Amino acid sequence: MSAETGEEMVQVEAVGRLLYVTLNRPKALNALCWPLMERLKEVLKTAEKDPSVGVIILRGAGRCFSAGYDFQETPATAIKPGQGPANGEHEPRGVPEYGSGVWNSRAHVQDHINYDMMVWNLWKPVIAQVHGFAYAGASTLALACDLTIMASDAKLGYPPTRWLATGDNVGIYSFLAGLKKAREMSYGRMFNGVECTECGLANYHFPAKELEAKTREIAERIASIEPELLMLNKMVVNRTWEMMGIKTAMEVAGEFDTISHLAYTARPMIDAMKAKGDNLAEALKALNEPWGGL
């Protein structure tokens, strides 16, 4: 981890009734770490009560939306049989005295889900503007937004199901994409913007060069609705899906991911790291080669 601050990791820009919130760790592919997520929570909760903000657009700086949660902060290769990768030092619910066990492994995963649910429950619409890729935990963050708008060539999915863990994403994949597509994703398949739109993971896809303008056009139209009506419109849809079990599905998916941490499902990654001299980039390249890369 660098010495970046939460304020540096999340940029905020108001444009009329829109608030652009940008994940700003481009050198780290906007990897999600605890300081970034705490700052994002603070920014979104502040915007929720700001009368000048109608719609929030969440996006990433540089090459992508985000590569997912930061392996440098909680290294997956630290997993040992019967132990999780977290030790309670970073996780909001973590207890360092409990070490790398059930408590901190669950705190690690369920607190990721809590951030996603914070976006889900926000009283103002949040639109994910996805370019490049939204992998792993970033895919759930993008899908928890009210609308997900992707570049046609952007990719979304959970690569670690190939070599690490089940992922806390499969619950929301299942609800949005359906049984067959969710199974494909749980078996390591990434979907591009066209495929995501076709199966219900995304609302729209546009050529990358048109993504920003098209997203803004859609957001401005939504922002023209009176704020209290907009809030109620969002809540009635959310509550309907909650009655069907989407929140429980997300939590259960997180619990299975915790079980993975306590098993030895990370063996392929550990072996790849050893084979590549602890070079994470080279290890990931080798692990993902059978799928044609990330």
Question: Describe it for me?
Answer:
Helix content is 46%, strand content 13%. It is α/β, with parallel strands linked by helices. It has a single domain, classed as 2-enoyl-CoA Hydratase, Chain A, domain 1, CATH 3.90.226.10. Helix 3 (102-121) runs antiparallel to helix 10 (246-262) and helix 5 runs antiparallel to helix 6. 46% of the residues are buried. The model has no long low-confidence stretch (mean pLDDT 94).
Q: Could you give a short description of this structure?
A:
By secondary structure, the protein is an alpha/beta fold. Helix content is 46%, strand content 13%. It has one domain (6-291): Alpha-Beta Complex (2-enoyl-CoA Hydratase, Chain A, domain 1).
Give the topology, please.
Blueprint lengths: L5 H4 E6 L2 E6 L10 H15 L6 E6 L41 H20 L4 E5 L2 E3 L1 H8 L2 E5 L3 E3 L12 H8 L1 H8 L4 E2 H7 L4 E3 L4 H13 L3 H17 L2 H17 L4 H9 L4 H9 L6
Helix pairs in contact: 3-4, 3-10, 5-6, 5-10, 11-12
